[in-house]
Amino acid sequence: MADIREKSNAVETSNAQIAVHWREEEYFYPSPKFIGQANLTDPAVTERFSEEHFPECFKEYADMLSWDQYWHTTLDTNDPPFWKWFVGGKLNACYNCVDRHLDEYKNKAALIFVPEPEREPVVSVTYQELYVRVNELAALLRDFAGLKTGDRVTIHMPMIPELPVTMLACARLGVIHSVVFGGFSGEACGRRIADSGSRILITADSYYRNGKLMDHKANAEIALEVAQQEGQAVDKVLVWKRHRGQYGSATPMVPGRDFFLDEELLKFSGELVEPVSMDAEAPLFLMYTSGSTGKPKGCQHRTGGYLAYVAGTSKYLQDIHPTDVYWCMADIGWITGHSYIVYGPLSLAATSVLYEGVPTFPDAGRVWRIAERLDVNIFHTSPTAIRMLRKSGPDEPKKYNYHFKHMTTVGEPIEPEVWRWYHDTVGKGEAVIVDTWWQTENGGFLCTTKPAIDPMKPGSAGPGAPGIYPTIFDEDNQEVTAGSGKAGNICIRNPWPGIMQTIWGDRDRFVEQYYRKYCKDPKSKDWHDWPYFAADGAVLAADGYLRILGRVDDVINVAGHRLGTKEIESACLTLPEIAEAAVVPVVDEIKGRVPEVYVSLAPGVKASPEIADKVTKTIETIIGKIARPKRVHIVPDMPKTRSGKLMRRVLAAISNNLSTGDITTLANPDVVESVREMVQGKGAVAVKDGPDDLKQFGGVD
Ligand code: WT7
């Protein structure tokens, strides 16, 4: 396990720079119109969710759900840091997202699916239709696929309505779903199948991306092979068709193993399945994410606490009412989609929009056309998407007659300038904005403004969400005072219902990764002694607003998605031609950061453009296109310390045209100069100052 302490050292050293280039931004205020209709307007919420009322304050969220059996203990801290929430309670997540809305809303759209091709009609799925489809599929999963409560199922699907249907059918049975982002490669999917121990894979034949029908089923073949190599056999592959009755993949179906769901479901027509009453602490799903080692970790989320937390934050912070048309443009294959396309909005009987494709397809007006046509009034996206839309059509939003009351930005820091475009042009000056900071591990928002109560500040996430007490620790375990301008490691002092239960199958790694660093007493059963370490650098302003600076570990945030540098490096090292590999983040105007690869070659191998290509292709095959490097540099040697450690920080500086700092202590300072010349060109002048995550990247290794 990489030493987190070592890795995050450099946050502190860049304090001075932060103070210099961080200007305090002005406040923006929500409109009276927004406040007039908002779910959460009473400032007493801060008092209700204050430490004095913790943990009972979270009863307010849990009471938004329908429980089969009420809990007896709100928070059990007997086995820290494995907190238990709403202990003794029983409920079913699918029942809460579907069945309980039927009386009042059966005719209302639960999901609105917007296909990428504009010639295809928009598809609405009412709560009644969702109920029928989820029941039929649950019956099939139980009786045909043989799945039972506690089993894991891997779902590798694109953004089609069958994806939430599949998740909810699993939840109905208490089957733990593990959704793998559709853009991940077959290999990446296979490794997740193996880690989760799934014997069923649910996939789809095809989907549209940028105008092309992609063959998705092809991934299943590779996934099964990789899972098999890792010792996990898959019995059945269940395949949804993108166009009912029409197979859109060139990959053959394997008789006896592969089954078309549209055909098999005919046998379960009209069947109803009683939702299984689950313990609040029963796992609901796994979501794999990258960390500082080569192996992605399966974040295990619980049923009761998770659902309560996403329902509460969707209602109060997303301001979702059943009458709203809510569009979160994330992919359901990421945690944002799980919490804020599926479970949060549906638990509140909202109408949740699903868009299949690329935001700028076929032109820069597409997103705003969808918003106008469906009369979307809550919009949720990432800074990468906002930057992309701004670049491709800065005036497009003005051409369309839509009105957002509320907008979210999530996943990466947003530049104040980009925030202002989002506010003025996309939001037409009318929409309130929440900048929500959180992570796959967290289940739901951790830092954000309360939209009708707190003013907004461009570039800052805001204070802790209700019942969340963030703080910043320095490397000496001291809390950094608000307004000091000093950066440090953002931590959450308390447990909350949305926090993951553990890393699937790896309790030690869970403790090591998130709690070891700032634990005050490993024997203590008092939650006060167990702050959660998020691995992000942040600054806390005098007003209590947090500005997130970025990861302090070996994780690169590409377009709001996490990629582990170690994962990409291991992918490169599978090629016999490669002796060493180092992956660093490089600034990208749209995506925030993208990976750049340095490789040195095995003896006797000659550098060539073909080798660089091969490296790129290998990364795409093993991880997915999302990890495609901006450039691959073949270098004669890597900069190293005298003890032989690879200096990724120096390479990150070179890639970003920053000054490499003091390199005289390196074993081979001359290598740095030749690599620099190779990458930046002769006579290039490096810039002294740059983004903080780059300066601290790779720590002191
Ligand atoms: C990392 C988590 C769950 C959100 C989607 C990404 C960065 C997230 C913000 C924000 C600045 C942010 C952090 C965090 N991040 N939200 N509002 N401002 N940075 O989830 O893939 O688990 O990534 O995304 O660095 O650690 P994820």
What's the gyration radius in Å?
A: 25 Å
Mean pLDDT: 94
Distance between the termini: 14 Å
Question: Beta-strand level of the residues, as a percent range?
Answer: 15-25%
Largest sheet: 8 strands, mixed
Q: Output the number of helix runs.
A: 24
> Structural class, from helix and strand content?
alpha/beta
Query: Outline, from the CA principal axes?
Result: globular
Strand elements, count: 30
Q: Estimate percent helicity.
A: 25-40%
Descriptive report:
It is built from 24 helices and 30 strands. The strands form eight sheets. Strands 12-11-8-6-7-14-15-23 form an eight-stranded mixed sheet, with helices on both faces. The chain has a seven-stranded mixed sheet with strand order 5-4-17-16-18-19-20, sandwiched between helices. The chain has a four-stranded antiparallel sheet with strand order 21-22-24-25, with no helix packed on it. Helix 17 crosses helix 18. The longest helix is centred in the first third of the chain and has 17 residues. The radius of gyration is 25 Å and the shape is globular. 5'-O-[(S)-butoxy(hydroxy)phosphoryl]adenosine (WT7) binds next to helix 15, strand 20, strand 24, strand 25 and strand 27.
Task: Describe the structure concisely for a colleague.
By secondary structure, this protein is an alpha/beta fold.
